[in-house]
Amino acid sequence: MKEKITRHLLDGAALREEVAEKHSDTIERMARTIIESYRNGGALYIAGNGGSAADAQHIAGEMVGRFRYDRDPLPATAFTTDTSVMTAVANDYGFDDIFARQVGAHVKSGDVFLAISTSGNSPNVLRAAELARQKGASVLALCGRDGGELAALADTALVVPTQRTWDIQEIHITVGHIVCRLVEDAIFPRDEK
């Protein structure tokens, strides 16, 4: 067991190092896009399936609540949290539309839509991203493997360079935390010592 634990942690550390070296600019662009939207009265909307749904909720919670310190809430919504809407849309239109219908109802020009998909090919996430783009929102993507269709569709995409779903998800929430910190620091600056 200890060997498996050590291997998992060391593989994850190596992947973080690679992402730090190759994708810091991408993370900065993502944060700047959200900051600009917030400064212009926009909102952040997030969607994903499974573990990515949990990440969507986690990131929205950090924005609405707080990340490192008390401050005013920031408008962020995870489209994965309203089970009545999701099940009604899935029943009436199909699972592929559960996020697009919510984009249609809420997202406006100047907002940001953060799409999370480990494969980059989740049909419901792709439909939502396409509609968000049509509505004039900025589309950001967290994906893995080769980025799938989502990476090409997004204005800015961070593609985690591995096939291992768990490593992709661990990097996604790490990036989410970094973005939350950068946004919080920019919108509500504090002197740090």
Write down the overall geometry.
globular
Stretches where pLDDT falls below 50 for ≥5 residues? none
Number of helix segments?
Answer: 7
Proportion in helices: 55-70%
Q: What is the CATH architecture annotation?
A: 3-Layer(aba) Sandwich
How large a portion of the residues is in β-strands, by DSSP E?
Answer: 5-15%
| Terminus-to-terminus distance | 41 Å
- Structural class, judged by helices and strands? alpha/beta
What is the radius of gyration?
Answer: 16 Å
Quick one: biggest sheet? 5 strands, parallel
Number of domains: 1
Which features characterize this protein?
193 residues; alpha/beta; Rossmann fold; five-stranded parallel sheet; 7 helices; 57% helix; 13% strand
Can you characterise this structure?
The protein is an alpha/beta fold and 193 residues long. It has one domain: Rossmann fold (3-Layer(aba) Sandwich), CATH 3.40.50. It contains seven helices and five strands. A five-stranded parallel beta sheet has the order 2-1-3-4-5, sandwiched between helices. The radius of gyration is 16 Å and the shape is globular. The model has no long low-confidence stretch (mean pLDDT 96).
Question: What is the strand and helix layout of this fold?
Answer:
Layout: H1 2-39, E1 44-47, H2 51-64, E2 76-78, H3 83-92, H4 100-106, E3 112-117, H5 123-134, E4 138-144, H6 148-153, E5 156-160, H7 165-187
Parallel strand pairs: 1-2, 1-3, 3-4, 4-5
Helix pairs in contact: 1-7, 2-7, 4-5
